[in-house]
Amino acid sequence: MFPSPSTDIMGNSQKDSMTDDILHQHRIRCHDPTITFSDEMYNEALIAIEDLCIVIANLPLSNFGMNSPNRTASDLINTEMNRELQYSTVEMAAIVARNVPLLNEEQRTIYDRIMLAVSAGQGGFFFLDAPGGTGKTFVISLILAEIRSNNGIALAVASSGIAATLLDGGRTAHSVFKLPLNIQNNPDAVCNIKKQSSMATVLKRCKIIIWDECTMAHKHSLEALNRILKDIKNSDKLFGGTLLVLSGDFRQTLPVIPRSTYADEINACLKSSPLWRNVEKLQLKINMRVQMLQDPSAETFSKQLLDIGDGKVAIDETGYVKLPTDFCTIADSQDTLIEQIFPDVHTVHKS
């Protein structure tokens, strides 16, 4: 049971507050701070509220005794397009101008390679292999900003909600592509995106899709995306000719398959998909986080992590990895553990 909201939620006393973000987006997009509230904006806010009701309760606003928004096809298309075109081209250009000179040689090579593919407009399929600390998020954020500075659409998705929050405009892949929840059991899964829908229009027009932390995704997700893009764009090209950049680190979390074996997890990986043979691999190796710390122990620890991920460390007779003696600190009690992780926590907390 869901409690009924006040029917005055979009009445005169509330509608401006509920629509304030939409007004802000319109002002940015039109570069006009004098734009005021309109009936179209109020309707757009109602659509957003109803979308949340459908996601949470699978019920439209009319079921709660409220007026439903006017959902014409153009309204729906504008809502999705507005989300992706809300960025200030001036602000995006400033981000690019300020940060591109900060790229190291390795990062700049990858940035230039992907932007070359964007300019060519012929699609492409890349995987950016980037261990933690190598500046992956920095690079892909600049690619997103560069495209948006020219009023282009750049979709940013991630396999987890936490990873999505690190990208400007980032959302989960399941949310954007409407992937089924039981995708691991369905090799012929399809994305729930209608060909004439607002999301389909965005996918047709986008210059690039960047999918971060892709290594957590099931291969069926990638294959479902390939099918829907081909269908939407009426193209037999890989991903319908859309430029797709995957990024992540296969040394980290792989797809989680309930009650599975190691073989099941490997089979679920993107690398096990027939599509993977088409990928162009890019790699970031320089750990900028370690360089900034200028701490030899941090560099040693970083190398140890990579060696474990690359399978270069010794394995005992039971099949377990033998960790180096200096790899971790053994805590003999909970208090010791807390003190090691949060030094002087009591002093800091009191201050």
UniProtKB/TrEMBL annotation:
Molecular-function annotations in GO: 5'-3' DNA helicase activity; ATP binding; hydrolase activity
Reactions catalysed, as given in the entry: ATP + H2O = ADP + phosphate + H(+)
Gene3D superfamilies (UniProt xref): P-loop containing nucleotide triphosphate hydrolases
Record InterPro entries: DNA_helicase_pif1-like_DEAD (IPR010285), P-loop_NTPase (IPR027417)
Cofactors (names): Mg(2+)
Residues annotated as transmembrane: none
Keywords: ATP-binding, DNA damage, DNA recombination, DNA repair, Helicase, Hydrolase, Nucleotide-binding
Superkingdom in the source lineage: Eukaryota
EC number, UniProt record: 5.6.2.3
GO biological process, any: DNA repair
UniProt domain DNA helicase Pif1-like DEAD-box helicase: residue ranges: 103-315
Family of this protein: Belongs to the helicase family.
The protein, known as: ATP-dependent DNA helicase
Native source organism of the sequence: Trichonephila clavipes
